[in-house]
């Protein structure tokens, strides 16, 4: 019984060892392609340098979005073992380029599958998205930027013109006052007009004239004028005195 279990265990171990040293990898997982462009299907095969695993077949195919499988290419490989490299594990790339893609229906998952004498390994697949056109740089952003810049420049010019018009037309008095003030401030002190004579000077001149008149009157007094009554009395006294004078003679 123990011997039978040992045989079964060795058999299972040999199976695991046989399949454990081989593998298939596909990277990157997603690609974007344009029409009329070739697509490279990645396929990296890992295997040991033994007579059993150096001979294998590779199949390339793709599955479209509807789940339909289409064969692309297959090849046979018989790898020579370098001297001194026996039983060593190696990874080799077996990429394949497709024909130029004809339509958007070529979108799908592209696979690489490797088959040995008793083992079959399939890669995880690469999804290829086929587009009709690539990125086209549009000039919309540039046109919008130019229009916006021109609009800002026009608005700034209009605002400046309105400010100048408001300053020259709506505020002329303020401008005249400013000009007069600037002229007064810039005039040198020697050029300033003489201050007006005060009122007291005029009064003083008038007083001087009055004094001069008074002085002239005192120097040349006018004959005293008598009243009519006084003149008549004087005449009577004169006549009386003249009469007495005649009598004495």
TrEMBL record:
PANTHER family: NFAT ACTIVATION MOLECULE 1. GO terms for molecular function: transmembrane signaling receptor activity. The keyword GTP-binding does not apply. This is NFAT activating protein with ITAM motif 1. One of its GO terms (biological process) is positive regulation of B cell receptor signaling pathway. Keywords: Membrane, Signal, Transmembrane, Transmembrane helix. It comes from Anser brachyrhynchus. Residues 26-131 form the NFAM1 Ig-like domain. InterPro entries: Ig-like_fold, Ig_NFAM1, NFAM1. It comes from the Eukaryota. The chain crosses the membrane at residues 144-165. The lineage of its organism: Eukaryota, Metazoa, Chordata, Craniata, Vertebrata. Residues 1-19 form the signal peptide. GO terms for cellular component: membrane raft. Residues 215-249 are annotated as: Disordered. Residues 221-237 have a biased composition (Basic and acidic residues).
């Amino acid at each position: 019984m123990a011997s039978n279990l040992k045989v079964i265990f060795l058999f299972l171990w040999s199976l695991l060892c046989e399949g454990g040293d081989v593998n298939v990898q596909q990277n990157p997982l997603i690609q974007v392609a344009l029409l009329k462009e070739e697509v490279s299907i990645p396929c990296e095969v890992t295997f040991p340098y033994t007579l059993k695993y150096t001979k294998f077949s590779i199949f390339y195919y793709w599955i479209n979005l509807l789940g339909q499988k289409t064969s692309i290419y297959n090849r046979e490989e018989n790898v020579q073992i370098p001297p001194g490299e026996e039983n060593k594990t190696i990874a080799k790339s077996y990429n394949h380029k497709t024909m130029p893609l004809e339509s958007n229906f070529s979108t799908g998952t592209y696979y690489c599958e490797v088959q040995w004498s008793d083992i079959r390994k399939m890669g995880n697949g690469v999804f290829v998205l086929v587009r009709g056109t690539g990125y086209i740089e549009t000039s919309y952003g540039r046109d919008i930027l130019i229009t916006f810049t021109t609009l800002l420049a026009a608005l700034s010019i209009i605002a400046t013109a309105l400010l100048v018009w408001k300053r020259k037309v709506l505020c002329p008095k303020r401008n005249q006052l400013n000009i007069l003030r600037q002229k007064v401030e810039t005039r040198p002190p020697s050029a300033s007009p003489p201050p007006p004579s005060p009122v007291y000077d005029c009064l003083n001149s008038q007083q001087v004239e009055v004094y001069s008149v008074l002085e002239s009157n005192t120097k040349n007094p006018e004959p005293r004028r008598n009243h009519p009554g006084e003149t008549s009395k004087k005449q009577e006294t004169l006549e009386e005195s003249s009469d007495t004078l005649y009598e004495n003679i």
